[in-house]
Amino acid sequence: MTVNGVPEDLADLVHRAALATPPHVGDLANVRRRARARRRRRAAATAGGLVVLVALTGGAVPLLAGGRLARPATTAPAPASPVPAPPPPTIRPAEPAQRLMIAVDWTTWRLDGGKGPEVGLRGGGEVLPDGSVRRHRTPKDFSPGAALPDGRLVGLLYTDLMPGVRRTDGPNVEGLSIKLVVLGPDDAVEISREVRIKGQSIELLGADQRYAYLARDEGIVAHELTTGRERILLRSSAAGVDLIAAGQTSVGSDRLAEQRTDQPCRTDVRRLADGKRIARLTADGICMNGLRLSPDGRLVAVPYFLSNHGGQQRVAVYETGTGKLRVDQAIGTPRRVPVPGGVQGLAWADDTSLRVAWAELPAGARRVYSVEEVLKVVTVSVQ
Predict the structure, then answer these.
(1) Structural domain boundaries in the chain
(2) Which CATH architecture describes the domain 10-54+93-163+171-381?
(3) Where are the transmembrane segments (predicted)?
(4) Using alpha carbons only, what angle is made at residue 100 by residues 242 and 288, rounded to the nearest 5 degrees?
């Protein structure tokens, strides 16, 4: 879309972004719409409310000392060569409990009224413990949903099997494939299994070493990775809400955190065992992408931004059992530039330390930057 940038009302933008996420994701028109809504939520979090963006489619030779052998009686013994000290051991950063994945919108903006250079931020992948970024080779139209500690990636692969063929859209549409795909540590496909049930919705909420957790029409199910067998964990009827309709969901140790409204930023925490709501958390701002339960399920991180204060982006951490606020930390305030910047992802390093990825264009930028050039990782600690 190539339109001159027009400032829009920020609150209205976020409201429309939230409404753009429909409850049903089982047809062709809707399988991508949730991702677009999440991108709009990220764009709305940038200061200034500039949201009309242009999509980017687009060897040494050793010297040997030699000499004539002298008489032993007249030649002083050569000093013993010092034994070189062994190099210090390489200390590798501890492997985090959760892998930090980021996905930056590949968008650019042409400066000087469309006549200048393109500026933008692009890239994505996995932020390693040392701060470097690893790019993963994934299939086209692969939507990642979980990064496992053993190096595997789990996601859904959407495929239109009848491209160019006009047909009636909807949950019963013909020619739509939705596969659960597991990529190995080397990014090779290890599992590819059809999981679409015609006429029903599906969404991947998360995964662990044994199961992928899917939201289906009846509720949340555990899908065994090796066999494909499924069992119901929590029915929507037991929870009293449509579990697949949440805007964001995080599944953890007997905990389910979900957000249904962006403004106010409200998070409900439920027990997976019976669906009972045990906490309602409200952050004084507008929700952003990245809701994340801690590995032990005792804490939940809620990223949000303030519509005032220049659009400052923050992370609040709550106890899931009591709803008590433990930390509310400012991460940064994005510059007023047309290309989205700010919080790009977050993950728990352990049960009390959160890694937050932040990336934005530098002041005066006049080119496209890869996320590695501008990435920094902020740590949020819960005492």
Answers:
(1) 10-54+93-163+171-381
(2) Beta Barrel (2.40)
(3) 43-65
(4) 45
d(CA 97, CA 94): 9
Using CA atoms in the order 335, 133, 44, 215, what is the torsion angle rounded to 10 degrees?
-160
Radius of gyration of the chain (CA): 26
Beta strands 118-122 and 202-207, pairing class: unpaired
DSSP codes, 242-282: -GGG-SEEEEETTEEEEEEETTTEEEEEEETTT--EEEEEE
How far apart CA 375 and CA 292 sit, in angstroms, is 20
